[in-house]
Amino acid sequence: MRNLSFYLTNLTNFLNFLFPFLIKIPSKSLPVQIETMVSLVSRTGRNLQRYEKGYRLVVGCIPYRYKKSQEPTSVEELEVLVISAQNGQEMLFPKGGWENDESMEEAAMRETEEEAGVIGVVGGKLGPWQYKSKRSSIMHESYMFPLLVQEELDSWPESKTRKRRWVSINEAREVCHNWWMRDALEELVRRRRLNPQAQS
User: Fold this and answer.
1) Which PANTHER family match (predicted)?
2) Residue 87 in this model has a pLDDT that exceeds 90
3) Which has more pLDDT, 109 or 31?
4) Model confidence pTM above 0.90
5) How high is the mean pLDDT of the chain?
6) Residue 18 contacts by C-beta under 8 Å, 6 or more apart in sequence?
7) CB–CB of 93/129 below 8 Å?
8) Strand 126-132 relative to strand 51-52: parallel, antiparallel, unpaired?
């Protein structure tokens, strides 16, 4: 049993080491088995985590779509994707640590795929917001990106620990308990009203 535990720990560490290299390989050149394996592994640990002036840098996305079509119409046609927190008590938008080996946009898209299982096109940066972690006294500086969803995955790294749900803007305002995420949502809505044709 100890050997199995040792093997699994080393396999996980090895996959986490390979992950940054494998995601840069075009998926068409990977065998299907390896592509599937890579897509089902979440990054763990904070050894690559970015900090600036004492703040942990956090990025994420507000995944959105239009009810009737992918063509921009109005804010009323907008739906956003919320996910359950790991403790299952709250709904929020996908977010996580920005790491040293990726751009801000890459980190936001990675976190969104890992936590919400969606892929799409990112728009312009929203933020920053500063807040204190609920679990510790660490201060965070966070940025969000609008993400026009193009694909919903059937399985993703955190599919067993998180639920996802498409909601209206008004429902998102009610169910999302993080004040700074609600602020990011309002900024997205404001941008959509000013320029409905833009990719935010």
Assistant:
1) DIPHOSPHOINOSITOL POLYPHOSPHATE PHOSPHOHYDROLASE (PTHR12629), NUDIX HYDROLASE 4 (PTHR12629:SF15)
2) no
3) 109
4) no
5) 80
6) none
7) no
8) unpaired
Q: Are 151 and 195 in contact (CB under 8 A)?
A: no
Question: What residue ranges in 47-153 does DSSP mark as E strands?
Answer: 51-52, 55-66, 78-84, 91-92, 95-97, 118-122, 126-132, 139-152
pLDDT in tens, 22-55: 444 554 454 544 444 444 555 555 668 888 888 8
Q: Are 81 and 114 in contact (CB under 8 A)?
A: no
The widest CA-to-CA distance across the chain, in whole angstroms, is 60
Exposure b/e, 131-142, CB count within 10 A at least 16 = b: beeeeeeeebbb
DSSP state of 49: B
Enter the tokens of residue 49: 């985590």
DSSP state of 155: S
Residue from 142, 158, 162 nearest 62 by CA: 142
